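ok trying again, last paste got cut off:
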Amino acid sequence: MSTDPEYRNLGELLTLMRDEMRTGFAELKTGLAARVSVDVYAAEQRLTEQRLGELATDVADLRAETERAEQRRETDRRTAEERRAADRRMVWAAILGAGLSLAVAVLSAALLT
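nice, full thing came through this time. structure:
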């Protein structure tokens, strides 16, 4: 059997076609691998943005809670200060009342004698 030149060319063409197909599939595989990586990266970015949004909300809530606690402490401090002032006034009024009562008692005793 002699090899016809046409069949030899067909064999070479088939080999070239196989090589080109392998190269094409390798490029396609590389492209798909990169595409999947981009999709995964994009999903990770979305998840990161979501987490950052949740953290920002948590931080804002904590700041608001801290401010409310600070306002409560300030209100409690003012209330305590007002109570102390009222207590001081009451003590001075009691001392003054006792002193005046004593003075009235002394003057009454002096006038009656």
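cool. Helices lie at 5-112. The chain has a mean pLDDT of 89.
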